[in-house]
Amino acid sequence: MTLPAVLASKAAGLASRRLGRGGGTALPGLVAERLAPDIVARLARTLGGGAVIVTGTNGKTTTARMLTDILRAGGTPVIHNRSGSNLMRGLAATVTAAAALNGRIPNAERTAAVLEVDEATIPAAVTAVRPQSIIFTNLFRDQLDRYGEVDSITALWRRAVAVLPPSATVILNADDPSVAALRHETRARVLTFGVDDVGAAAGEEEHPADARWCARCGAEFEYSARFFWHVGHWRCRGCGDQRPQPDVAATGIEAWADGQRVHVATPAGALRVRLPLAGLYNAYNALAAVAAAGVLDATPEQTERALRGFTAAFGRQETLRVRGRDVRILLCKNPAGVNQVLRTLAAGESGRPVHLLMILNDGIADGRDVSWIWDVDYEVLHGRTALVVASGTRAADMALRLKYAGLSERLMVEDGIQAAAGRALSQTPAGGRLYVLPTYTAMLAVRDHLAALAGRRRFWEQ
Amino acid sequence: MSNHDTTPASYSLRLAHLYPDLMNLYGDRGNIITLRQRCAARGITLTVVEIGIGDPFDTRCFDLIFMGGGQDREQQRIAQDLQAKGPAIRAAVADGTPALAVCGGYQLFCRSYQLGRGEELPGIGIFPARTLHGGEGTPRCIGNVEAEWDGGTLVGFENHGGRTYLDAGATPLARVRSGYGNNGDDGTEGAVTANAFGTYLHGSLLPKNPRFADHLLLLALRRKYGDAVTLTPLDDSLEQRAHASAAAAARRENARRRRGA
Ligand SMILES: [Zn+2]
């Protein structure tokens, strides 16, 4: 059934792209899965270059993209679900698109796969793909209307790593205690990454932490350094379990407005990673990619070169030039991520008042429950805003949150995204910078609109 | 104590926030932020005191009590400590102290919470009701809610695995128009005992239900300063817009459910 499924899926992809429907990323996967439910397993297991799965609440897309770039820089052909469609049907669409018309993946013996996978899809994806490595980036509260509770994701992950063979590698964030705890649950080889440079610690405690208690003994964690949310140098007060010394460690970070240099110690030697992205969360993404690249025998030189030329995925610190303004789009998905975005933004502008367009949608992909905005510290922007336009299907909720954060000065509400973008652009001085902070579906919409104004291509054409 | 000529600026309230570091799911912090801001806008001093596990809790020092929601694991962590504080909280509620308990907090303010595994968490019995959880695999009640309360409409978002059933004679907080409410069967949402309110609505609740937020503040102020106290009206146009958009989302979801989609 592989060949008919591949052909039908390709036809569906072609048809839906002709019709201009969402880039044609969903339908081909559905078609392929209908005809051959095990299509992902059949095709993924032919790959000789190994398959890496990337999961976690934040950083999946960026980490997977970095790793793909590194492997390609070494000449390895890579299959990658670049459009970010990370459920089983997205994986089905990705592998069928990579197959040729004979139903096989060309050069399968040396091709690798880097697959971004939704947190809750991990058990199914692991069974199908039998990955050589899995990267777990972090675990924060996100889309609780879909996942129920943070604890239910931890339980799924524990079960998934328990069935991995010793030949597989799990790549874990040593600084996130709920991720690091997975090392006790698996027979697979464990590789950890983390930040040693305590100078990167925020110094202020955010609420709330989503990992407070040791999975082994139930006692509370304590921290000698906390970077953000519950990520830091932790130790259990009960059983003494503590942050493992990371195999891949950031020993020093020098940051500037739109980039940073990360000194990385790895088992294969030291790297100096120059990254054209700001934010400590992006340093973590790079560490995860470096760790996984090492497992696949990438050279330090190849890794440094690929990351130096890295370009952000659409909507993740992407900058567009629109009507003489720099427009920077920063995707906002959950409180831990948005807090990072706000702190990075504030640090980058070093005291200058900022122009902001905040777009809150409540679609399924955004989370229908918008209460998470009350867990975000928008207060850090108090006295720092020159303009705030609130937009989206829940524009009023967004505006209300900002009002209660003390940002009511020059606060405007404009439900329609295009109208809001127009208003925000015209209120931003020429030559100035506009920050756009959208939720996922809002990002797709606003990015499309801004790219059209800037004369760029749409996301699925990249 | 009660002096009817007191200028509003001299009013002050003390709020006890129960287990803020554990029971803080779904932006419950927004409720506290809202009470702070609505007091500040009127020159009322609001002091928020965080009460955690093992902390002494003399309810006589407080004019308002708040407890938010948490996952089952967090609820299990605090259940025992809450038992120790239960008699004081019951006495405070009997004495007319306003209280608000949301989601997991609401469940523990009822008589008991039967978890899926057969384990039963004791509550403190402020509300004559008990909560049952059908166990792993039981669909959760998730979605936007619109409900009719005596003082107007309440809107919010619910996300709970347990179903709460009120005893005969218990008073619900509101009647569900769109959404599940206590259990998805009998149309009730939340519970009321004296000036204590329990509800499944988060979202956060108080920012987009300003009348309900003011109702709590007014109950607290009148209990302390006498029935003549009134609240200065505030510009709630943004609050009303957020209220309307939450209500519209609830109605859309309700229509979808009716169509069976
Ligand atoms: Zn422990």
Fold blueprint:
The complex is a heterodimer of chains A (462) and B (261).
Chain A: H1 2-18, H2 27-35, H3 39-44, E1 51-55, H4 60-73, E2 78-80, H5 88-98, E3 112-116, H6 122-129, E4 133-136, H7 144-147, H8 150-162, E5 169-173, H9 177-180, E6 189-195, E7 221-228, E8 231-236, E9 248-256, E10 259-266, E11 269-275, H10 280-295, H11 300-308, E12 316-322, E13 325-330, H12 335-348, E14 354-359, E15 385-391, H13 395-404, E16 411-413, H14 417-427, E17 433-438, H15 440-454
Parallel strand pairs in A: 1-3, 1-4, 2-3, 4-5, 5-6, 6-9, 13-17, 14-15, 14-17, 15-16
Antiparallel strand pairs in A: 7-8, 9-10, 10-11, 12-13
Chain B: E1 12-18, H1 29-40, E2 45-51, E3 64-67, H2 72-94, E4 99-102, H3 104-109, E5 110-114, E6 120-122, E7 127-133, E8 141-149, E9 152-160, E10 162-166, E11 174-178, E12 188-189, E13 191-193, E14 196-199, H4 210-225, H5 237-259
Parallel strand pairs in B: 1-2, 1-3, 3-4, 4-14, 5-7
Antiparallel strand pairs in B: 5-6, 7-10, 8-9, 8-11, 11-12, 13-14
The complex binds zinc ion (ZN).
The site of zinc ion has 8 residues of chain A, from loops.
Give a written overview of the molecule.
Chain A is an alpha/beta fold and about 450 residues long. Chain A has two domains: about 45-90 and about 100-310, UDP-N-acetylmuramoyl-L-alanine:D-glutamate ligase (3-Layer(aba) Sandwich); about 315-460, Alpha-Beta Complex (Protein-Tyrosine Phosphatase, Chain A), CATH 3.90.190.20. Chain A is built from 15 helices and 17 strands. In chain A, the strands form three sheets. In chain A, strands 2-3-1-4-5-6-9-10-11 form a nine-stranded mixed β-sheet, with helices on both faces. A six-stranded mixed β-sheet of chain A has the order 12-13-17-14-15-16, with helices on both faces. In chain A, strands 7-8 form a two-stranded antiparallel ribbon. In chain A, helix 4 packs across helix 10 (about 280-295) and helix 4 packs across helix 11 (about 300-310). The mean pLDDT of chain A is about 90. Chain B has about 260 residues and is an alpha/beta fold. Chain B has one domain: 3-Layer(aba) Sandwich (Rossmann fold), CATH 3.40.50.880. Chain B contains five helices and 14 strands. Chain B is globular. The interface of A and B includes residues 212, 395 and 400 of A. Zinc ion binds near residues 216, 217 and 236 of chain A.
